[in-house]
Amino acid sequence: MTSSVITQCPFCSVQCKAVVTIKPKQKLGRTSENGEADHQVTDVKGYDNKASEGRICVKGLHAHQHAESTSRLMYPLIKKDGEFTRASWEEAINYIVGNIKAIQLKSGPDAIGVYGGGSLTNETAYLLGKFARVALRTKYIDYNGRFCMSAAASAGATVFGMDRGLTFPLADIEHAECIVLAGTNIAECQPTLLPYFTRAQASGAQIIVIDPRRTSTAAIADLHLAVRPGTDLLLADGILKIIIEEGHIDKNFIENRTRDYDQLGSYLDSLSIQDIAATTGIQEEQIRRAAHMFGRAKTSMVLTARGVEQQTDGHLAVRHFINLLLATGNIGREGCGYGAITGQGNGQGGREHGQKADQLPGYRSIENEEDRAYVASVWGVSPDQLPRKGVSAYEMMELVDKGGIEALFVMGSNPIMSNPNAVLVEEALKNIPFLVVADMFLSETAQLADVVLPVTSYFENTGTLTNLEGRVLLREATGSPPGECKQDWEILRELAFALDKGKHFDYSCSEDIFNELRLASRGGIADYYGITYERLRKEEGIYWPCRSEDDHGSGRIFEQRFAHLDGRAVFTSQQNDVRRESITASYPLMLTNGRVLSHYLTGVQTRRSRTLLSRQVESYVEMHPETARHYRVEEQKWVKISSRYGEFQVRCRFNDQIRKDTLFVPMHWGGVQNVNRATRAELDPFCKMPGFKTTAVRIEQVT
């Protein structure tokens, strides 16, 4: 007898719903002894919801395969004499707490670090921040979302006074007359969103795609600007300079709703379109065409993603793209606005409630005395007991390498693959005195751990996630945890009790945690107070801010005012003083990286799906055939790519639709194929985003 359950894809930020048909053998889950699935998924279909409109991509169709995988961790593991041995939960918890206490007694609270993830539910992200600050009393917590959204998030907060992925509902896309997609390959990374853009085109919209490669997204563009990696900011300036020169600005909007426009005008006057063309690699004629398309449109949008943001000037690059919207008055109206295409499943919610080094729930600041006092009152502690801000994710790895962090607790992340300068990170985690990893699988990072804790998959986990629109969604568990797997929050609760902090962590279910999150976020920028599980079950999803149970939230924000105290948005004329990565005689090519359709992040889950893995079993480097001939590289041969940080090896693919000075490598494979073994360690000074998209390298065929 079959049954159907409604679930939610665990991968990208669209958070598509799905109907999964199950043929049970015993019950949903598997036995703890042999790891064999005791159910069979017989069908998966998209389920109608407001974001995906019933669509689901290949990853969502096959996500259940990793949840069913026989390589799932079923019980805790403790490493003894270099080998993992099975342990009881009591033994594992006591072993972890014993080590934490010993390290903190010797070296203080900040000798412990906590490293979270952007795919964790809001409840877990919230609790992880509380656990670090209340149970461990450490200032060192950050998460892998630092590598995803920090540039766009900090830019939005600076320009608008708040950060929410999209300033408009997805339905507004069809009303835009011009859309700029900068550094985003929606067709492969968020494919269920693509129909919004094709429908807009069918209604007459013109789409400009900015990307060094002619991707599947660029293939639908009316204008593709194959920008030289690392020069996006300057390209945005060039487009705006022409828009202003030709009089396509909204003077009334500038005067009444913005500030600092005069400084921007002086800055743009100092630039030459000819110099911009030479630096960006985009012909002046194309820059002018882009300016005409954008400036003459009555409604325009700009959407950015990691291609623009994962650079050492990513924060400022996003702000310079937002200048285009402010100058033309294209925000706060139907068919207008800025959007950051969030990457991870809870990339939005995960950055709102305390996983970040400088953050408290509700997008509050851990350095603000009023914020500290309010959250401390919710948590039942003194504000003086809360630590101050720590450091960013990669800076935590540097502290581990230097011995400043002696124990690390990792939940929902794979830092030896996702960090830049991965050679340093791997050595640091090999040598750290004590490492704990909570994961579904024995990931590349988990293999180095002293203790590994088995956690539930999306099938077995109830909690909320916030999609790229800022819409909070409830994902219900559809089965019981297999084996001895525990919910993330249960693990944190048990550790807190063992650390004698149990009175602050006395929860019986995820809804208890969410209700506390509601209160902790109340009055903050990201206010969830009016959202309840009951409402989410009835209404499907609710936008934040939602300040009362009568508040339905708003998909389109900034219609009347921005979130700064004066209600105005801020123009940006500042440039980044950080050294721009440049090619040299020793490293003559520019390496960039990204995703492919069938995989997600570091591949820990998608590489456990037999169908997704069969679509792409190994990594590769994409390079122009003329470049390959110059460096004597043959197609499908293995090559070594080296930078001043390290090297990796992959197979070569030719593509005549990529810039001749650029190499592209996916980010989903570890070991010798890990692209981040070569990526550089410099960080954006504003948001600490690494420069993943611009590393000077050389290439040679492996003989």
Polypeptide structure, described:
With 703 residues, the protein is an alpha/beta fold. Helices cover 30% and strands 19% of the residues. The protein is globular, with a radius of gyration of 24 Å.
List the helices and strands and how they pair.
Elements: E1 3-8, E2 17-24, E3 39-47, H1 58-61, H2 64-68, E4 77-80, E5 83-86, H3 89-107, E6 112-116, H4 122-135, E7 141-143, H5 150-160, E8 178-182, H6 186-189, H7 194-202, E9 206-210, E10 223-225, H8 232-245, H9 251-257, E11 258-259, H10 261-269, H11 273-280, H12 284-296, E12 300-304, H13 306-309, H14 314-328, E13 337-340, E14 359-360, E15 364-365, H15 369-379, H16 393-402, E16 407-411, H17 415-418, H18 422-431, E17 434-439, E18 451-454, E19 463-466, E20 471-475, H19 488-498, H20 510-521, H21 533-539, E21 541-543, E22 569-570, E23 589-594, H22 610-615, E24 620-623, H23 625-630, E25 638-642, E26 647-654, E27 662-666, E28 695-701
Parallel strand pairs: 6-7, 6-16, 8-9, 8-12, 9-10, 11-22, 12-13, 16-17, 17-18, 23-27, 24-26
Antiparallel strand pairs: 1-2, 2-3, 4-5, 4-18, 14-15, 19-20, 20-21, 23-28, 25-26, 25-28
Helix pairs in contact: 4-19, 4-20, 5-14, 8-11, 8-12, 8-14, 15-20, 16-18
Strand order of the largest sheet: 5-4-18-17-16-6-7
Radius of gyration, taken over Cα atoms and rounded to an integer in Å: 24 Å
Strand content: 15-25%
Q: How is the quaternary structure best described?
A: single chain
The DSSP helix count reads 23
Distance between the termini: 56 Å
Shape call: globular
The proportion of residues forming helix, as a percent range, comes to 25-40%
Q: Which class best fits the helix and strand makeup?
A: alpha/beta
Count of DSSP strands: 28
Mean pLDDT across all residues, rounded? 95
Biggest sheet record: 7 strands, mixed
